[in-house]
Amino acid sequence: MVGMILGAVYSLRLYNRVVSGNLKPYFLHKFDDPNGREVSKFIPFLFGWVTLR
Fold first, then answer.
1. How far is it, in rounded angstroms, from Cα 10 to Cα 14?
2. What is the pLDDT of residue 10?
3. pLDDT in tens, 14-33
């Protein structure tokens, strides 16, 4: 029960920080557009998803 309460408190706190814009700007450079290396790793997953659909 304590874990559920702590999980809810953590989730609400995280949601509040994201919605109210309390993120630190120096972390934003880590979320750039994907580079060629990331795209080359994603293409096989995309191909598999399309073929299994």
1. 6
2. 93
3. 888 877 776 666 666 666 77
* Residues 20, 25: Cα–Cα separation, whole Å: 13
Residues in contact with 42: Cβ distance below 8 Å, sequence separation at least 6, in sequence order? 34
* pTM of the complete model: 0.39
DSSP state of 51: H
Where on the phi/psi map is residue 15: left (φ > 0), alpha (ψ -120 to 50), or beta? alpha
Residue that the structure tokens 């997953």 belong to: 45
Strand segments (E) across 1-53: none
